[in-house]
């Protein structure tokens, strides 16, 4: 029997039991859809984070306290939030052109979570102690007032710039500029309100409060060190030189002669992007692997249904054999039925997965406000279709073999 005839016979067999065929491919559809959605969301999240990292500028470096983590499970990752190896004297030394001639800007950074209160209203938010360089680095704008100055930093002024969400929660429609809010029992005058930026993958600036880093250290956090120091090189081509000069300067200040004993690490935009890519790729693959389990479940379902089909069509098999069909013809027919079922399920899963991925991207961009771009993972579509067809082949082989080896005389007598 020709392949074309075998295929037509298989399609006829599937059409005879439409409800059963639909329920059979449902597991495959769900599995492929889940794979498409997981990989699309994973790629979308990765693109979102990488775009925000790129927005920092290719000349930006981040100095982190503590030794550089050797992997995602390295305990030193936690150490970077508590290590007190970066202090004011380090920042002052880095500012000197004799130490780091290619350094253009430097910004100490401290942060913590605390409650901001105003006349009975409270809002728990992230407090950033920083300088006005944060406005440039993160492309922030003010709708009212101004940011604090270098004089405010030197004077440890009790001033604060709040995000629109903080303003809304504490003041509602009332004017917040010039009013005083309490943080750690201390009065802070609101001197600026940020423009709405929308939630981001790194920081939601709508929900933060900025104060001079000296004020945050003394009155809010009670520390004398920095959680991060952000540096901007004068030119992109001077990044490597800037890293080397910073490393040399800090090692001299900290009396470090063995590089393995470094109590700080420096990350460039490329370093951060690579780490983010590794993490998001691992998470995406992990979630995709979990989703793929449903494909195996669907494959087992197909095998069970095909075995039932073989039993129900025993007389048909006997009749076809009596009319001259070979074991190969019978096996091809039932194997084609299984592969066709999974292939149809794969195609339907790809279409449904693409639709759900697009809807997810639309909701995240239009409703949530993220800069989320729809990404259709072609490799996931190829993988989903290929795996579903392979599952049909593998799980359809046993039922097809059982049908092929039936004795035509016994099959004709089957009731």
Brief overview:
With 415 residues, the chain is of the alpha+beta class. It has helices at 3-16, 18-55, 76-79, 88-95, 133-137, 150-154, 164-171, 213-221, 239-253, 269-312, 314-322, 327-367, 378-404, 408-413, and strands spanning 60-65, 103-118, 121-130, 142-145, 159-162, 180-183, 186-194, 208-212, 228-233, 264-268.
Structural notes for this entry:
The chain has 415 residues and is α+β, with helices and mostly antiparallel strands. The protein folds into two domains: 3-52 and 275-413, no CATH class; 84-262, no CATH class. 56% of the residues lie in helices and 17% in strands. Strands 2-3-8-5-7-6 form a six-stranded mixed beta barrel. A hairpin with a 2-residue loop joins strand 2 (103-118) and strand 3. The longest helix has 44 residues, at 269-312. 37% of the residues are buried. The model has no long low-confidence stretch (mean pLDDT 79).
How are the SSEs ordered, and which strands pair?
Layout: H1 3-16, H2 18-55, E1 60-65, H3 76-79, H4 88-95, E2 103-118, E3 121-130, H5 133-137, E4 142-145, H6 150-154, E5 159-162, H7 164-171, E6 180-183, E7 186-194, E8 208-212, H8 213-221, E9 228-233, H9 239-253, E10 264-268, H10 269-312, H11 314-322, H12 327-367, H13 378-404, H14 408-413
Parallel strand pairs: 3-8, 5-7
Antiparallel strand pairs: 1-9, 1-10, 2-3, 2-6, 2-9, 4-7, 5-8, 6-7
């Amino acid at each position: 029997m020709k392949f074309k005839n075998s295929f037509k016979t298989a399609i006829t067999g599937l059409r005879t039991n439409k409800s059963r065929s639909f329920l059979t491919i449902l597991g495959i559809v769900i599995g492929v859809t889940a794979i498409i959605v997981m990989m699309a969301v994973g790629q979308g999240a990765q693109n979102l984070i990488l775009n925000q990292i790129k927005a920092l500028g290719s000349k930006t470096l981040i100095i982190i306290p503590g030794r550089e983590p050797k992997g995602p499970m390295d305990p030193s990752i936690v150490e970077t939030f508590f290590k007190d190896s970066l202090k004011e004297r380090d920042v002052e030394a880095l500012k000197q052109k004799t130490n780091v001639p290619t350094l253009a800007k430097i910004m100490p950074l401290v942060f913590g979570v605390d409650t901001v209160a105003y006349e009975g209203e409270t809002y728990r938010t992230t407090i950033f102690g920083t300088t006005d360089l944060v406005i440039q680095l993160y492309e922030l704008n003010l709708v009212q007032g101004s940011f604090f100055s270098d004089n405010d930093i030197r004077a440890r002024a009790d001033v604060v710039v709040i995000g629109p969400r903080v303003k809304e929660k504490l003041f509602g429609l009332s004017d917040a500029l010039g009013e005083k809010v309490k943080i750690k029992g201390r009065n802070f005058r609101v001197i600026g309100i940020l423009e709405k930026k929308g939630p981001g993958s790194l920081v939601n600036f709508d929900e933060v409060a900025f104060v001079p880093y000296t004020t945050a250290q003394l009155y809010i956090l009670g520390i004398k060190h920095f959680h991060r120091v952000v540096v901007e090189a004068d030119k992109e081509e001077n990044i490597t030189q800037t890293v080397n000069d910073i490393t040399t300067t800090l090692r001299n200040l900290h009396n470090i002669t063995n590089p393995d004993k470094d109590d700080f690490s420096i990350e460039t935009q490329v370093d951060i992007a690579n780490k983010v890519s590794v993490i998001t790729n691992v998470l995406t693959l992990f979630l995709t692997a979990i989703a793929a389990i449903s494909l195996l479940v669907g494959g087992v379902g197909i095998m069970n249904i095909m075995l039932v089909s073989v039993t129900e069509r025993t007389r048909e098999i006997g009749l076809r054999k009596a009319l001259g069909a070979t074991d190969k013809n019978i096996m091809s027919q039932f194997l084609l039925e299984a592969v066709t079922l999974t292939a149809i399920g794969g195609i339907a899963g790809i279409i449904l997965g693409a639709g759900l991925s697009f809807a997810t991207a639309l909701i995240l961009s239009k409703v949530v406000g993220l800069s989320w771009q729809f990404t259709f993972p072609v490799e996931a579509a190829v993988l989903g279709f290929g795996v579903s067809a392979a599952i049909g082949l593998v799980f359809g082989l046993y039922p097809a073999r059982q049908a092929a080896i039936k004795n035509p005389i016994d099959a004709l007598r089957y009731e």
